[in-house]
Write a structure and sequence with these properties.
The complex is a heterodimer. Chain A is mostly beta strands. Helix content of chain A is 0%, strand content 54%. In chain A, strands 2, 5, 6, 10, 11 and 12 form a six-stranded mixed beta sheet that branches. In chain A, strands 3-9-8-7 form a four-stranded antiparallel beta sheet, with no helix packed on it. Chain A starts with a strand and ends with a strand. Chain B has no helices and eleven strands. In chain B, the strands form two sheets. In chain B, strands 2, 4, 5, 6, 9, 10 and 11 form a seven-stranded mixed beta sheet that branches. In chain B, strands 1-3-8-7 form a four-stranded antiparallel beta sheet, with no helix packed on it. In chain B, strand 5 and strand 6 form a beta hairpin. Chain B is mainly beta. The radius of gyration of chain B is 13 Å and the shape is globular. The chains are: A mainly beta, B mainly beta.
Amino acid sequence: AQSVTQLDSQVPVFEEAPVELRCNYSSSVSVYLFWYVQYPNQGLQLLLKYLSGSTLVKGINGFEAEFNKSQTSFHLRKPSVHISDTAEYFCAVSMNRDDKIIFGKGTRLHILP
Amino acid sequence: NAGVTQTPKFQVLKTGQSMTLQCAQDMNHEYMSWYRQDPGMGLRLIHYSVGAGITDQGEVPNGYNVSRSTTEDFPLRLLSAAPSQTSVYFCASSYSARAHEQYFGPGTRLTVT
């Protein structure tokens, strides 16, 4: 069965500094990968997704992620964070042969002034 | 379009009571799903549906029932509420599970005493 591991439950980072949120998945077949963001007291919204093609995917709000098949990773990055990026970020995976979408446990991004 | 709507927003139940969480979408999406969100656990899939008349279990289905009589609606029923079901419940929909963005409702915060 597929699974998703987000290695950090919380990440503190200073405003305007770069950040990387880590995500690893386990699956023996082709996968589709997603990052979602949840702002306080809201539902989730899509940041970006990898379906196929270029391994570097750009999303909204200046975020990007790189798919690394050999390391089964899909880490999320932003070169310079803003206070408005304070949120919880979820990595998710679905497989081509299954209809379940599995989420990681989430990473809380704390922006320090 | 209203997107994905959920009712109620908040609910308090006593142990043993039953209730139905409502979810509706107006985007003609075939795929709908229910998740529960608990601190430190991320989103866990309860049940999902790939179309009207078709439902299947997710990661944590015990204590919950679903049905999908129409494309638009996907209610979640708690048969006999337990304190362990205290959580925030999210409904989501998409064109399919495999490669498409999921659209989330605003959530229902349920407390079981």
